[in-house]
Amino acid sequence: MNVPQHISIIMDGNGRWAKQRGLDRVQGHIEGVKSVRAVTEKCVELGVKYLSLYAFSEENWNRPTEEVGALMSLLAKCMIQEYDTLMDNGVRFRVLGNRSRLSPDLDEAITNLEKATENNPNTTMLIMLSYSGKWDILQAAKKLAGRKPEEITMEAIDDALVTAGIPDPELLIRTSGEQRISNYMLWQTAYTEFVFTDTLWPDFRKDSLMAAIEEYSRRDRRFGKVK
Ligand code: IPE
Ligand code: IPE
Ligand code: MG
After folding, report:
1. According to the 3-state scheme, what is the secondary structure of the chain?
2. Which partner from 30, 47, 182, 219 sits 20 to 30 angstroms from 24, CA to CA?
3. Active site residue 60
4. Residue 178, Cβ neighbours under 10 Å: how many?
């Protein structure tokens, strides 16, 4: 089996999972945390270097205030609750996105966890929070503005994105049956293999990840060339 060094996931379907059970949408997000834990542990086992998770998009700020608030509180809670699991598994934690929109308290808690886990040698977990692909390209363009045209290279753009230094994902999984990119990593997924599954995120566990990696292993990646 060909295991990618960077796996990315659009974790979708928490709301529908809850609705199917007559629960509040937030219960779906809470259950989704268990999937994050399971998938992270599996990535550590498999030696995956990077696991990026789309946790909250820039567009998600437009959800009802109560849901946004509940999601932000859940995140803050998880960062305390999951500390031991991250350390036990040697997982490095990072958050990438438009951090200026986060509350100062949450931002500080994130920075502290990033520092506490920065020397962990196994999988790096990248939580894409308040992230959007177009925002990422825009902030990169602003960083590059004023440079000489010949200095604006593909590598310079790579290095100006929030994912600087991180290889592009070889595999992107989206759960819940939706088949769209929803303003996720637009630049970084230029040659990524996409796997779509009907499984809702709270039901996506270790075996679902293995099935997605197996599907990826069967793909023939040509990068425009003739094989
Ligand atoms: C994904 O689940 C989590 C976030 C976007 C924060 P949703 O909340 O989008 O769940 P559905 O798509 O409504 O079922
Ligand atoms: C994409 O899911 C964002 C995350 C999973 C965090 P959405 O549920 O927000 O996407 P749309 O609205 O269905 O495109
Ligand atoms: Mg959704």
Report:
1. CCCCCEEEEECCCHHHHHHHCCCCHHHHHHHHHHHHHHHHHHHHHHCCCEEEEEEEECHHHHCCHHHHHHHHHHHHHHHHHCHHHHHHCCCEEEEECCHHHCCHHHHHHHHHHHHHHCCCCCCEEEEEEEECHHHHHHHHHHHHCCCCHHHCCHHHHHHHCCCCCCCCCCEEEECCCCCCCCCCCCCCCCCCEEEECCCCHHHCCHHHHHHHHHHHHHCCCCCCCCC
2. 182
3. yes
4. 13
Determine contact, residues 87/118, Cβ cutoff 8 Å: no
Query: What's the 94 CA to ligand 2 centre distance in angstroms?
Result: 20
Cα gap 25→105, rounded to integer Å = 24
**pLDDT digits over 31-83, tens only?**
999 999 999 999 999 999 999 999 999 999 999 999 999 999 999 999 999 99
Q: Which atom of ligand 2 is nearest to the CA of 56?
A: 6
Query: Which residue is catalytic, options 12, 14, 136, 168?
Result: 12
Whole-number CA gyration radius for the chain: 18
> And the tokens for 133?
């692909």
Model confidence at 227, pLDDT cuts 50, 70, 90, reads confident
Amino acid code (one letter) for 174: R
Nearest CA to ligand 2 atom 10: 182
Whole-model pTM: value is: 0.98
User: How far separated are the first and last CA of the chain, in Å rounded?
Assistant: 20
Task: Tell me whether residue 107 is one of the annotated catalytic residues.
Answer: no
Closest-lying ligand to the alpha carbon of 128? Answer: 2
